[in-house]
Amino acid sequence: MARSYNDQIEKNGSKTLSDQAYLQLRSDIIHGVLQPDEKLRVEHLRGEYGVGASPLREALSRLTADGFVTSEGQRGFRVAPMSVEDLADITHMRILLEKQALTQSIEHGDDDWESRIVATFYQLEKVEESESRDSTEWELRNHDFHEALIAGCSSKWLRRFYGILYDQHKRYRNIALSTEIPRNLHQEHEELRNAALARDTERACDAIEQHIMRTAEITMNVLREEAHREQEIA
Fold first, then answer.
1. Is the pLDDT confidence value at 207 over 70?
2. Which site among 32, 109, 132, 136 is 20 to 30 Å from 70 CA-CA?
């Protein structure tokens, strides 16, 4: 099975086997290498990830706490399922947290905060305007831009839970990105940049809500169509 494991381990400086297993598994769940409801057998994962049983169980327990994995007691672990209802809940909570973090950033962000927004938007813009856009590169630049927008938020708990919800949303966003529904993502990001730099809190919060909701609506339509096709086959 091909690994979608990226540079996050090196970036975070993680050294323990449990940390490595956690990040690898989390990445593969987010990117669909490990499918929703897939059984996660420790003995099988040991061979796939080259990590012992104890670090794997610790990593799976952490992923359960973050909502990426479900625990079945003595029956083991599974990748968390995906559904329209779950996406709606994640979207609602992400909007609440991101708007709060963005509001704090606009109120307290300094020149470095503004410079980071400008720099990350420029890097994202280069990818979005490229004729051969690389999806992995886009995802990294998109993440950096959204992180820059809320970098002025000082609440560690808000940032922590936002990070979990961002990655939960990313599981679904990958579905939206695979569709061919017309959408001007660059324009949406440009509006976010302009509103944040103008210190226009209301405009920025409206822009981020519409931006996140657009992704959710596209993904919900895909999920409903898939469920309808499965019903027809059954």
1. yes
2. 136
